[in-house]
Automatic annotation (TrEMBL):
Gene3D superfamilies: P-loop containing nucleotide triphosphate hydrolases (3.40.50.300). Belongs to the ABC transporter superfamily. Residues 2-230 form the ABC transporter domain. The keyword Ribonucleoprotein does not apply. This is ABC-2 type transport system ATP-binding protein. GO terms for molecular function: ATP binding; ATP hydrolysis activity. Keywords: ATP-binding, Nucleotide-binding, Transport. InterPro entries: AAA+_ATPase, ABC_transporter-like_ATP-bd, P-loop_NTPase. It comes from Alkalibaculum bacchi. CDD domains: ABC_DR_subfamily_A. The lineage of its organism: Bacteria, Bacillati, Bacillota, Clostridia, Eubacteriales.
C-alpha cells in the first residue's frame, strides 16, 4: 500500500540529512510499528507520509498516488494531538470529519458514536483547552478515525495515557484493522507494538536498519529491536546499546 523509494529528507538546505535513502513497503491492512531512538527520524517519516512536508529526493507512493492525492483517505494524529483547544470536543470531531468524504448525516452520527466509545460523551460541549493530556489524546484518536480513513498515521499514541485508555486504544486499533484500514504507528512502547503490530521497521539516524513482517508468537518485538540495532551498530562500529 505504501512504497518508500530511496527517500531522502533534510529540513533546510544546509541542515543535516534526516532520512538517508529509505526504501521499504508497507502492506495493505498492516498495523506497522515504526521504531527507533529519539531523533531517529520517525516523526519526519510520518509527516512525509501525511504530505505535510515533501521529500528532498526519492518518492512515497500510497496506492500508487503521491501523499497529497491520498489526503482525503488518510488521517494523521501528531504527537501534539492536532486538536483545537478553542473548539468543543464535538466541534473538533465535526471539523475533522468534514475534511474526509463523509456526508453530513454520517458526520453527526459518527461523531456521537466515537464520543461514546471513548468515554467522552458527557464532555462533548467542553472547550478542549481545559482537558487533561490523556483526554485530549482520546479525542485526537476519535478525530483521526471519524472520517473512516484507509490509512491511519499515529505518532506516539500511547504517550501520557492511563492504563485504561491504553486498553481502549488497543481495542480500537484492532477493530480498525478488522475494518480493513492500514496503520503506521510510531512508538517507543515495544510491548504495545508487540501486542498490535504485524510488521515493523527500525530506523537509526535516518537509516533503515530493519523492516519485516513479525510473528510475535515466535519472536518478541523487544528482542528483534535490540538484536537488530546492536547488529547495525556493530557493522557500523558504533557502541552497542545493551
Ligand atoms: N522542524 C524541524 N527543523 C529542523 N530539524 C528538525 C525539525 N523537526 C525535527 N528535526 C530534526 O530531525 C531529526 C529527526 O527528528 P524526528 O522528530 O523525526 O525524530 P523521532 O525519531 O520522531 O524522535 P523522537 O522519538 O524523539 O520523537 C532530529 O535531529 C530533529 O532535531
Amino acid at each position: 500500500m505504501i512504497k518508500y523509494n530511496e527517500l531522502y529528507f533534510r529540513y533546510r538546505k544546509k541542515n543535516p540529512q534526516i532520512l538517508n535513502g529509505i526504501t521499504f513497503n508497507i502492506n495493505q491492512g498492516d498495523v506497522h510499528g515504526v521504531l527507533g531512538h529519539n531523533g531517529a527520524g520517525k516523526t519526519t517519516l510520518l509527516r512525509l507520509t501525511s504530505g505535510i512536508i515533501y521529500p528532498t529526493k526519492g518518492e512515497i507512493l500510497i496506492d500508487n498516488k503521491v501523499p497529497e492525492q491520498f489526503k482525503r483517505y488518510m488521517a494523521y494524529m501528531p504527537e501534539s494531538n492536532g486538536i483545537y483547544d478553542k473548539l468543543t470536543a464535538l466541534q473538533n470531531l465535526k471539523f475533522r470529519a468534514s475534511l474526509s468524504n463523509t456526508n453530513k448525516k454520517e458526520i453527526n452520527q459518527k461523531s456521537e458514536e466515537f464520543l461514546v466509545l471513548l468515554g467522552l460523551i458527557d464532555r462533548r460541549n467542553d472547550l478542549v483547552g481545559i482537558w487533561s493530556n490523556g483526554m485530549k489524546k482520546r479525542l485526537a484518536l476519535a478525530c483521526a478515525l471519524v472520517g473512516s480513513p484507509k490509512l491511519l498515521l499515529l505518532d506516539e499514541p500511547t504517550n501520557g495515557i492511563d492504563p485504561e485508555s491504553l486498553e481502549v486504544l488497543i481495542s480500537i486499533i484492532k477493530h480498525t484493522q478488522r475494518l480493513g484500514a492500514t496503520m503506521m504507528i510510531s512508538s517507543h512502547n515495544l510491548d504495545f507494538i508487540n501486542e498490535i503490530g504485524n510488521s515493523i521497521s527500525i530506523i537509526e539516524k535516518g537509516t533503515l536498519v530493519y523492516n519485516d513482517q513479525i510473528d510475535t508468537n515466535k519472536c518478541k518485538v523487544k528482542d528483534i529491536y535490540f538484536n537488530q540495532l546492536n547488529k547495525f551498530r556493530k557493522d557500523n562500529k558504533d557502541e552497542e546499546i545493551i
